[in-house]
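Hi all, posting the design record for the shared folder.

TITLE: backbone redesign
STEP: 1 of 1
STRUCTURE INPUT:
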């Protein structure tokens, strides 16, 4: 119940605009055809950016105990390409939202969440979103 309340406040404090930015990135990736490998990830992280409390992003290698295409050398290349094309501007969006949240004491936890999302925006390949364990 608390996570629902936090998520509703979150949507007002920057979650909706940043989710829309992620979904715009997904649309651009899908349109370019070359960006299709990133389009689904953008959609998933956009939803995570809209409704982050009660879920967390973790590395798939850590979750499954084994590597896959996105957690190996191809994932590193994918993250470099992602950073150069879209990751830096999504990270800047989350960082500016974090700064706006840090203006008030109530906004500090939401600002911290924006910083976590900014880090994910820099290198999302190999990450997955799961329900929080705590």
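Okay, here is what came back for every position:
SEQUENCE:
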């Amino acid at each position: 119940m608390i996570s629902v309340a936090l998520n509703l406040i979150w949507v007002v404090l920057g979650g909706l605009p940043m989710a829309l930015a992620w979904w715009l990135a997904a649309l651009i990736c899908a349109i370019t055809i070359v960006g299709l490998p990133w389009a689904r990830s953008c959609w998933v992280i956009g939803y995570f950016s809209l409704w982050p409390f009660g879920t967390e992003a973790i590395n798939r290698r850590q979750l499954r105990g084994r590597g896959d295409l996105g957690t190996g050398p191809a994932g590193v290349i994918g993250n470099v390409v992602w950073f150069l094309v879209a990751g830096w501007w999504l990270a800047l969006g989350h960082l500016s939202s974090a700064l706006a949240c840090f203006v008030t004491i109530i906004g500090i936890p939401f600002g911290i969440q924006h910083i976590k999302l900014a880090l994910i925006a820099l290198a999302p390949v190999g990450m997955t979103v799961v329900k929080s364990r705590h």
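COMMENT: The chain has one domain: 2-131.
Let me know if anyone wants the other runs.
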